Amino acid sequence: MSFCQFFGGEIYKDHFKPGMYVCSKCNHPLFSSRSKFAHSSPWPAFTDTIREDSVTKMMETLTAYKVLCGKCGNGLGHEFVNDGPEEGVSRF
């Protein structure tokens, strides 16, 4: 499943079938459906990446990191610290 191209609607926001979410530019593995959860944002929400090097993160604020594909640098959005489905869990 190609992830993170938002042109008027995100088709994977409410998609919960088993699978892997990959970069829309280079197909690098990013997130597993096992870490996906329902969230009120207009984009899919995940608690964790597939591997530590799946993404590159750059701190923007104390509670948010800019997230890029770990292979090609494609912009994927943000990681919001402590905004996941459980206390102490981040949301991508």
UniProtKB/TrEMBL annotation:
<keyword id="KW-0206">Cytoskeleton</keyword>
<keyword id="KW-0712">Selenocysteine</keyword>
<dbReference type="GO" id="GO:0045087">
    <property type="term" value="P:innate immune response"/>
</dbReference>
<dbReference type="GO" id="GO:0005634">
    <property type="term" value="C:nucleus"/>
</dbReference>
<keyword id="KW-0391">Immunity</keyword>
<keyword id="KW-0539">Nucleus</keyword>
<dbReference type="GO" id="GO:0033745">
    <property type="term" value="F:L-methionine-(R)-S-oxide reductase activity"/>
</dbReference>
<keyword id="KW-0399">Innate immunity</keyword>
<dbReference type="GO" id="GO:0030091">
    <property type="term" value="P:protein repair"/>
</dbReference>
<dbReference type="GO" id="GO:0046872">
    <property type="term" value="F:metal ion binding"/>
</dbReference>
<dbReference type="InterPro" id="IPR052150">
    <property type="entry name" value="MsrB_Met_sulfoxide_reductase"/>
</dbReference>
<feature type="domain" description="MsrB">
    <location>
        <begin position="1"/>
        <end position="92"/>
    </location>
</feature>
<dbReference type="Pfam" id="PF01641">
    <property type="entry name" value="SelR"/>
</dbReference>
<comment type="similarity">
    <text>Belongs to the MsrB Met sulfoxide reductase family.</text>
</comment>
<comment type="function">
    <text>Methionine-sulfoxide reductase that specifically reduces methionine (R)-sulfoxide back to methionine. While in many cases, methionine oxidation is the result of random oxidation following oxidative stress, methionine oxidation is also a post-translational modification that takes place on specific residue. Acts as a regulator of actin assembly by reducing methionine (R)-sulfoxide mediated by MICALs (MICAL1, MICAL2 or MICAL3) on actin, thereby promoting filament repolymerization. Plays a role in innate immunity by reducing oxidized actin, leading to actin repolymerization in macrophages.</text>
</comment>
<dbReference type="InterPro" id="IPR002579">
    <property type="entry name" value="Met_Sox_Rdtase_MsrB_dom"/>
</dbReference>
<protein>
    <submittedName>
        <fullName>Methionine sulfoxide reductase B1b</fullName>
    </submittedName>
</protein>
<keyword id="KW-0963">Cytoplasm</keyword>
<dbReference type="GO" id="GO:0033743">
    <property type="term" value="F:peptide-methionine (R)-S-oxide reductase activity"/>
</dbReference>
<dbReference type="GO" id="GO:0005856">
    <property type="term" value="C:cytoskeleton"/>
</dbReference>
<keyword id="KW-0862">Zinc</keyword>
<keyword id="KW-0560">Oxidoreductase</keyword>
<keyword id="KW-0479">Metal-binding</keyword>
<dbReference type="InterPro" id="IPR011057">
    <property type="entry name" value="Mss4-like_sf"/>
</dbReference>
